[in-house]
Design brief:
The protein has one domain. About 75% of the residues lie in helices and about 0% in strands. It has eight helices and no strands. Helix 1 runs antiparallel to helix 8, helix 5 runs antiparallel to helix 6 and helix 6 packs parallel to helix 8. The longest helix is centred in the N-terminal third of the chain and has 29 residues. The chain is globular and about 55 Å long.
Length: about 220
């Protein structure tokens, strides 16, 4: 089995595992099976609350704000196109836009009400899955993949570490501020993993058909 086929299979395996994980989590959420752990984790994180940490978390949560990511996305897509990296620009745009579409569709499908917030006004819209978590994972994850295509190993590790920290921090900030349950954040990450894996797999299939003589 060549590298291309292994990558395709790996992508489908990751997408399948992510979908199964999300389905199992969603089932528990709808049955109230996550209520106890949601409450425990929320209160454990809230116990660390302080004015300084609250200001920091409000800043961190902006890193997953759709408005900010749209602006960053437009700038980065334009920059990638200007550098001739058309495929990378397209994959980034599809990943970010598709992630938001998936999030909104699932939110209205499950229609889970948000928890009472700890800080600030009551958040609007439904709660499951967390849109900030979906978008942060899709955007920063795909961006890290694009930036590390030609990078050395040390740089790859550094970029992926930063992307992982940003994504995790955004999710934690949503729980800290009280606008999401922990299960909402976990569900958001699962959705992002599925979507990004499908985008990656779809891209490889398209590339194979368009350029059968070359490896992607």
């Amino acid at each position: 089995m060549n590298k291309e086929n292994r990558t395709l299979i790996d992508g489908m395996v990751v997408a399948t595992l992510g979908a199964v994980g999300f389905a199992l989590l969603a089932q528990q959420v709808m049955r109230g099976g996550t209520n106890s752990i949601d409450r425990s984790v929320r209160m454990a994180i809230h116990a660390w609350a302080s004015p300084l940490l609250t200001r920091a978390m409000r800043g961190v949560t902006e890193l997953g704000q759709p408005t900010l990511l749209i602006i960053l996305g437009v700038v980065l897509v334009w920059r990638l196109y200007s550098l001739g990296r058309y495929r990378a620009a397209t994959v980034l745009a599809i990943s970010a836009i598709g992630g938001e579409v998936c999030d909104q569709a699932l939110k209205y499908s499950f229609a889970r009400h948000r928890p009472d917030v700890f800080f600030g006004p009551q958040a609007m819209g439904y709660s499951f899955p967390s849109g900030h978590s979906v978008e942060a994972c899709c955007f920063y994850g795909v961006l890290a993949a694009i930036l590390t295509v030609r990078a050395r190993m040390a740089m790859k590790i550094a970029i992926w570490t930063v992307a992982a920290i940003l994504t995790l921090a955004v999710g934690i900030s949503r729980i800290y501020l009280g606008v999401h349950y922990p299960s909402d954040v976990a569900g958001g990450y699962a959705v992002a993993v599925v979507w990004v894996a499908l985008v990656r797999t779809g891209y490889l299939v398209w590339l194979r058909r368009r350029l059968p003589q070359r490896n992607p």
